[in-house]
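I am sending you the entry underneath: sequence plus fold tokens. Let me know what the token row says about the fold:
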Amino acid sequence: MNLPPQICEALLEFGQQSDDELDIAETALILATVDRPAVHLESYRRHLQTLCDEVGAYMAGLPTPLDVEICHEALVQVIFRRYGYIGGEDSLDDPEAANLTRVIDRRSGLPVVLGVIYIHVARHQGWIADGLNFPGRFLLRLEVNSERLIMDPFLGGAAINTQSLRDILKVVSGFHAELQPKFYQSVTARAILLRIQNNNKNRLLRSDRVEDAIEVIDTMLLFAPKFTHLWWEKATLLARIEQIPKAILALEQFLVHGRGSDSLYKASMLLQELRQSSN
């Protein structure tokens, strides 16, 4: 992996932090410099702070306790209406749509990257904001004073009701799909950042750029060292391009840190197979 030392050090530091400690926006900015190592991040940090300040100013003087719909309106008013952040229909195959600095430049990008902005700004106000485990479409939930509201960052932060959730699910998963409680479960900041990197990795794999995809996995392992399935994925990709010694090392790491009997059995069998092929 050919990352500048300062980027590696920062990501390794993030990897040692708990999910509650991890600053989702700062980590996303550092990840953005992987593709743009010469970029200066201070202007992007100032912009994110401006969004936070302007939402705070919008809320100033409102009576408490706050209503979640008012807080939602503040986020939408500043992030979407004032600054124009919205999803782009052509963003799925655009590498810049997964880069937070480029998204800030263009005010458009993947839903998950736009979601990072909403989450960062909402949490700065002291509100609870989390990504949801919803299939196929990144959505987030805003919670204020025990009131909840689901938002779609791709659609300018629009509030999403149950019927809209059903409609989105049926487009993504088929006509017979139904809403399930697990779709409303929150995901960690680290999992959201991994989802961004997975977009990059999958795009590279679609272009058969396997070695570049492996470098993305190496980056993910820096800030998510406990996500041991990444070692398994790295090993299988290395085996695919016949880098057998490196694949063996990755599998050994998976066996040391991995969990789950089925996965461990598969890894052991593959490791045996690779060792035999290398003799």
Observations:
- Residues 42-59 form the longest helix (18 residues).
